[in-house]
Specification:
Layout: E1 2-15, E2 30-43, H1 54-68, E3 71-72, H2 84-95, E4 102-110, E5 113-117
Parallel strand pairs: 1-3
Antiparallel strand pairs: 1-2, 2-4, 4-5
Length: 122
Amino acid sequence: MKARLTKEFRFEAAQTLPNVPEGHKCRQMHGHSFKVEVSIEGEVDEKVGWVYDHAVISRAMEPLLELLDHGYLNEFEGLENPTIEIMAAWFWRKLEPDCPGLCEIVIHETPTARCVFRGFAD
């Protein structure tokens, strides 16, 4: 039996988007209450009854959340232009080594705007 599980995390951060056109409101410093969903897919272990221990995902995310929460995203390597697309790829690179079966990262920057990222094309 195959299943997908998702763990949700939240953090607050400021950003500017330096590459958008002059006059665009996102060139100005602003902040968001970000929500990140990390999904793992795989076979359900018949003995344990789950695909993955949620605690493993939490341990992998903890240092990233500590780094970013209440920070200025543009100051972090790889997030100099922190669009949600770039942020999703950044999280993927950081989590993939510690989260086998990683299949999707969703970054919400507002209640109505999000990016779904499913890894890098081979």
